[in-house]
Amino acid sequence: MIRFECDYNEGAHERILQRLMETNMEQTSGYGTDDHCERARVLIRQACGQEEADVHFLVGGTQTNTTVIASILRPHQGVIAAVSGHIAVHETGAIEATGHKVLTVPSPDGKITAAQVKAAYDAHAQELSPEHSVQPGMVYISQPTEYGTMYSKAELEALYAVSKACGLPFFVDGARLGYALASKDCDMTMADLARLCDVFYIGGTKIGALMGEAIVILNDALKRDFRYIIKQKGGLLAKGRLLGIQFETLFEDGLYLEISRHAVDVALKIHDTLKQHGVQFLYDSPTNQQFPILPDSLLAQLSQDYTFTFWEKVDHSRSAVRFCTSWATRPENVEALTRDIVSLLQKDKDPAEFTEAVAVLETAAMV
Amino acid sequence: MIRFECDYNEGAHERILQRLMETNMEQTSGYGTDDHCERARVLIRQACGQEEADVHFLVGGTQTNTTVIASILRPHQGVIAAVSGHIAVHETGAIEATGHKVLTVPSPDGKITAAQVKAAYDAHAQELSPEHSVQPGMVYISQPTEYGTMYSKAELEALYAVSKACGLPFFVDGARLGYALASKDCDMTMADLARLCDVFYIGGTKIGALMGEAIVILNDALKRDFRYIIKQKGGLLAKGRLLGIQFETLFEDGLYLEISRHAVDVALKIHDTLKQHGVQFLYDSPTNQQFPILPDSLLAQLSQDYTFTFWEKVDHSRSAVRFCTSWATRPENVEALTRDIVSLLQKDKDPAEFTEAVAVLETAAMV
Amino acid sequence: MIRFECDYNEGAHERILQRLMETNMEQTSGYGTDDHCERARVLIRQACGQEEADVHFLVGGTQTNTTVIASILRPHQGVIAAVSGHIAVHETGAIEATGHKVLTVPSPDGKITAAQVKAAYDAHAQELSPEHSVQPGMVYISQPTEYGTMYSKAELEALYAVSKACGLPFFVDGARLGYALASKDCDMTMADLARLCDVFYIGGTKIGALMGEAIVILNDALKRDFRYIIKQKGGLLAKGRLLGIQFETLFEDGLYLEISRHAVDVALKIHDTLKQHGVQFLYDSPTNQQFPILPDSLLAQLSQDYTFTFWEKVDHSRSAVRFCTSWATRPENVEALTRDIVSLLQKDKDPAEFTEAVAVLETAAMV
Amino acid sequence: MIRFECDYNEGAHERILQRLMETNMEQTSGYGTDDHCERARVLIRQACGQEEADVHFLVGGTQTNTTVIASILRPHQGVIAAVSGHIAVHETGAIEATGHKVLTVPSPDGKITAAQVKAAYDAHAQELSPEHSVQPGMVYISQPTEYGTMYSKAELEALYAVSKACGLPFFVDGARLGYALASKDCDMTMADLARLCDVFYIGGTKIGALMGEAIVILNDALKRDFRYIIKQKGGLLAKGRLLGIQFETLFEDGLYLEISRHAVDVALKIHDTLKQHGVQFLYDSPTNQQFPILPDSLLAQLSQDYTFTFWEKVDHSRSAVRFCTSWATRPENVEALTRDIVSLLQKDKDPAEFTEAVAVLETAAMV
């Protein structure tokens, strides 16, 4: 079985494991106060071009989102997010469990716009009795999104400007950040991102590390007592050095972007090959997640040798599925996958159905 | 600098690292659904003699305590714990953050008694208007305790019997469980413990693993939907296999107890050597934490070469401190530590002060 | 200024005030343990035909919803509600503040269907990894709804049957319950309702009382320790007798339904009069809230003498607004209101615009 | 049965009921935006000598404490309170339910000292890893306390000064405030109190009103969005005018202090009479709660005609109990109570036992 259902199917990049071996019997203080964490912080600040940023290391994404959001909002405030945002749909109500509503706005492609943020803010502010509803308190986006799509620099600038104007801290979930920055369609750097938000995080779990997310806090007002919130939410790792060592390794020679690029390259290989064979895609993703629409019969056969994620029914005979690549994806596996799909496609291809599928899809996308 | 301030100063046992290397490029499904986790569950069930137990792997102790407790209590209930319990003092209000009060009972040695649980339960039940105060909803203890002390089998039997009689789930925090089970004073096995509580966990972070705690749920009523709570509280590790692999290694050849025994042996080496030289101890600990009372002047000097934890002032010139050993503690470091303490002691020993310290201490212990 | 913007513009029914005067210097025990509360419970159980029901008195609606919902759900569960449900939009995130997500389903008319509940339940149960999203844990509806619409007995039977089949407690918010039961379109009694749900409440604040809501718990599994939750959520009134006395009065001679009927009668007077003059309505409400669509110019003028609630823009020149009547609405005020609207309508009536408005409205309602 | 077990046994002062009757059919806007609330705010600001204070009306004490505290603290912070504070023991964990720990400090008499606040603050600040424990975030006291004792102006000045120095908002629970201000031992006015804290509330429930507490926010930093928190916590009364009308009445002619004085006068009558007959008291209370120590046999007999609250066993044959008076206490009932106690005392008086009881009590008080 060859796995494409997520981007955390393997362990860690070999250089990370190597480093863990080398440092294993070093004695360090706990909870992220060690020299490896300190060095990783310096490297990340450099990558961000932000000497004053606070950098904290946590273990996983849900924990990170919860910790950041709970640290920012007052009790009556909620967080604006896309209806498809990870915090809205895939964290078992972790945000609500800290007392806050996720204020969702519609999104066909996983992104939200500055205009939507402004509209949500204004709609609340203009209510006759605003205190009867949840006050927007911050803005959450993912870069890239849960659908593999990506914000342009201009879009981020607009979102940050609007958020600032509304007094809403702007938080960017970068669980797959490298896969955006390494995309050839990307017009921004990590330093650009760091200038265009109040707080973001750099995903390690999905990009080379055993586990780990690096939170970068840019806005001074959000820095205070952050370690307390990490501890309370269960995210202060005893052997914090494990996270420090991993981010040190990822950030000392450009490894983070290098391995991200690999994942995107092989993802586009899948995309381009399938597209050449007439396959349509649910979202237009330039990153490591691809969402082709394929015949259900084909998918049934394919699932005997490959794992992937069912996404949604598109019409009576076709579904969109998700293939993820990662830093660890073997080119030969991608080769095999595309070859097998193409071969299955050629067996049961029916151009009429394709046209139909696309029509249905376009209708759906407009909703 | 030689470190004795905690039991998580190093990485992981070499066999664990080895295994992580070997399995690194295996592809597995996420979130603990892989074969390594499954095999680790089987091994732990065997060690517990409980085929029907549910076993879940989490990353750290605060997260584990919060997840277990939040999964059990209804909103108006609190958890009974020693005033020195980890959940009461060292988790930044993580339990309260899930809405629950920690109902502390006094404890001179870190332990609580069946009589205390009964008294707390009865006191509440007999209130004229019990609904005006928090209802005891479960019982929490640590084995060994935060003071290195240990419950005997008889004490656990009594606690479990009382808890059952009161309808209170009984939860044992085993962040350092191996260091109790490996103590030569210990009269119980892991299987005994598993028969004497509703849920407990086996600490890996402090005993050989990079990180990881294995929750063992014995009581069927507590099993339902537990993975939801793990996910919501941020504890569902994406690469769950990392925890599976580590517990597999710790439990396949008795490694867990073997390395625990080492830690206890060297801890007792410290204890016995200092005792021979007349040093008194704050608590009578047969496990990996030792709390000698030493002259402040000595401690000042000692801290130039060693790290340890200041615990409390005992009199005007002496303090209790904590030395932790672990699976990773090097015998030569223990040798050096005891030699240096003894040599410093001999320099400034003053029998009169010792007597005084002991008197003060005994008074304090009686409070 | 004549007020129609809500149904709590006045104090209490005179018989209630009278009774408060008469009983004022009686000495009673606190927190709802007095004889008045006890008698009110008996009367309510009789009205419900449920001798075993638990009855509790709280002060207001948000408090009541929060208390009931928090008492039922486990941490990882959410409550299914219409997107327009009071708990979803008008309680400042009170449900989220207790840790739970409101799982909204679309609703054009304020009601949800048994099929929607089934679909939400199944969709969750069929997820590949359901533990990554919030588990539906109960169902909430309002009778009548926030849009004045009403469930038929058959609809409630279907909802209750589905809820039971899915293991979801079914909760009916009756903040305006009398205004449904007193509607001439209503095909059910309070006893019917009591057979068709697990818990509901009878609104007093909007129907004759100074304040107060009576929770009726039918399902034994939901009764345990309910007073603790009331106290914790701030709803246990010290002078509980005030609520007892009011519900005693409302339920001893059929006063509750009698005054509810008055409100509905005058609401229908508004509805029928406007309809006769060609006015369209946003929702088809047979209860005390009416939502006519009127020209903005008319509304501007009308607002000089009357208060009402702006609801939504319907087209470029018309808006839907809400008029509420209540037990206290004076017939002469309704007379004046309808007369003034009709007279303003005749001044600027333009049949073409009406047609347009209706077209837009119908489109909107289909979404 | 004559009731002395609490200070909310009756309805409301007759002038309040009168006013509710007179205003009953006035139409007002909801949620405290009406003219009565506005006028009550003006009167309270005048009584406080604070033109800029924000004044909000809530229904009950637990609700008020929860709302104020939840509005102030960040997630990792707790509230310092006496171990006997209402929020610590009698609110079913309402504070914990909003995520916050109550950080209790010992108190023999219900009061805490500036030195204790400083010590708690310093102890936390000086921890090696303060982020592992709850950060003190504010200070809570009751004036008068749950034991009837009272802070002097000098004590409040010291508490406020220390709180300010530590950056801790200082909150005074005045559920029985009138009974302190009306005490002849009181050296302060409401205006003094308003100068010496960040936020306090004026209890109405226990002093003349049907229900109601008036929160006075002095510190500008605590004013923002307070109505949102009230609404979320279930405390925004629909017919807010009911609270406005009551506080208007209580504050327009000095009624609040006048009726408070009556309660204190009759309480002291109890105190002085019993003292003359050799009765000892558990606390030295100059307010409306009195805690005499009486023979258990006497109490058993007394309880056939009077209600009062058992407080604690003092020795094998005597207990402390609480008698509360209020604005509504009838002098003839106090007359009867004291006469009956004295007569019972004379029957079974035994000077030897008294002496013993006092000895035991004094020992207990020293702990």
Automatic annotation (TrEMBL), chains A, B, C, D:
Domain Aromatic amino acid beta-eliminating lyase/threonine aldolase, residue spans: 17-243
GO function terms (MF aspect): lyase activity
Biological processes per GO annotation: amino acid metabolic process
Pfam families according to UniProt: Beta_elim_lyase (PF01212)
Cofactor: pyridoxal 5'-phosphate
InterPro entries linked: ArAA_b-elim_lyase/Thr_aldolase, PyrdxlP-dep_Trfase, PyrdxlP-dep_Trfase_major, PyrdxlP-dep_Trfase_small
Protein family membership: Belongs to the threonine aldolase family.
Name under which the protein is recorded: L-threonine aldolase
Organism annotation: Paenibacillus polysaccharolyticus
